[in-house]
Amino acid sequence: YGDHRDLHLSLRRQRQMCIRDRYRIMPISNSFKPGKHFLQIPGPTNVPDRVLRAMDYPVIDHRGPDFAEIAKRVLDRIKLIFKTDEPVIIFPSSGTGAWEAAIVNTLSEGDKVLMFETGQFSSLWQEQAKRFKLDVDFVPGDWRTGVDPKIVAEKLSKDKDHKIKALFVVHNETSTGVCSRLGEIRKVMDEVKHPALLLVDTISSLASIDFKHKDWKVDVTVCGSQKGLLLPPGLSFNAISSKALEAYKTSNLPKSFWDWKPMLEMNKDGFFPFTPATNLFYGLDEALNMLMEEGLENVLARHTRHAEATRSAVKEWGLEILCKKPEEYSNSLTAVMVPEGHDADALRKVVLDNYNMALGMGLNKIKGKVFRIGHLGDFNDLMLAGTLAGVEMGLKKSGIPYKAGGVMKALDLLSQ
Asked: 371 and 403 in contact (C-beta within 8 Å)?
């Protein structure tokens, strides 16, 4: 009996210890970060709650009348964002897919094209063009300036036989925060009377920086869903001109999934030649509601204010903006250079670990040399204030030499 009694007491004590430990409040790890994560990379951007709620809806028959009604409404209204009355095609892909669609539907193997090195994404688009065996004239750049309209005019004026079939331009370089002057580029193309197609990447500029597909006579505009259009990644776009549709008729590059013709034919009735990303369409429908409620011009003005406030903070800190020319400053993001001998990625880690905020990294040639502040999409004054505060605290904690007061400088501008 005594042995059983001792065993019973021992088991009872163990049970009490387990219960005590079970409810003891103790740190298990330091991975939990309270509060909202600040996603301040230049895309993907913060997705508004309204869009998330719209996407949180049961999948419906993509061949049925309910989806057709949504698709037709979206396909019609998205034209307003591109500022065009010409067709816009929507693919279930990242922006890279829309790049490929722009190429294979308008060009043929061996065609000469003119491209400019303005950063990481212009370089990737150039590599894609080469894979399709296009003859690429790639004008080198310093990753701090945009496409030079004077060089465009010079190259096209010398091309008397019109061998250059297309000019490719990344409107806003997401990797550098440099925005090329597209209106001036279109003007010089008209002045030299060159018939080249104009293909433009607006992945980080549409619904953030003024863009005029029709007025600037852009033939194919490429875009993605994950930035100014307020959505997660997954949709890409080709806004196309009648001139691009004529080029389609003679293009001999292989195309199947990216083929415009079956898309245009089926889109008339709100359908697609393959299964579309139905829930992303729900989200896009609501995102368009939000952009229309605010008013597109007000959206663009808001992005301008936030960009100017960000740049005022950077200058007050005594740091240098990567983009050299004020007329090419991006309103979607600001790429900031760190002083020689300091590592931008180390700063980004300090900011993430201490303040739960993600900043964009420097890519390729500028890795470790810059950090990028995204200020586009679903964004307001208080979010920007928090973002800049996180950067300023990170600068102090990381030991990077800077001058305090950037946040207050930005707040002064925002409160005017």
From this structure: no
Q: What does the alpha-carbon distance between residue 311 and residue 406 come to, in Å, rounded to a whole number?
A: 9
Is residue 257 predicted with pLDDT exceeding 50? yes
d(CA 335, CA 327): 15
Tally of residues, the chain:
416
pLDDT digits (tens, 9 = 90+) for 198-234: 999 999 999 999 999 999 999 999 999 999 999 999 9
**Torsions phi, psi for 316 (to 5 deg):** -65, -35
Task: For residue 139, give Cα distances in angstroms to 68, 88, 105, 119.
Answer: 44, 29, 24, 12
Task: List the helix and strand counts (H, then E) for the chain.
Answer: 14, 14
Q: Which two tokens stand for residue 34?
A: 């309270």
**pLDDT, tens only, 276-291:** 999 999 999 999 999 9
- Read off the pTM: 0.92
Say how far apart CA 345 and CA 174 lie, in whole Å. Answer: 17
Q: DSSP state, 215?
A: T
Q: Which of 221, 238, 207, 193 is nearest to 90 (CA)?
A: 238
Tell me the C-alpha distance between 195 and 93, whole Å: 30
Dihedral through CA 292, CA 298, CA 303, CA 305, nearest 10? -160
pLDDT band at 10 (very low <50, low <70, confident <90, very high): low
DSSP-assigned letter for residue 42: S
Q: Whole-number mean pLDDT of the chain?
A: 94
- Measure the CA dihedral 190/192/197/202, to 10°: -60
DSSP category for residue 401: -
289, amino acid identity: N
pLDDT in tens, 328-377: 999 999 999 999 999 999 999 999 999 999 999 999 999 999 999 999 99
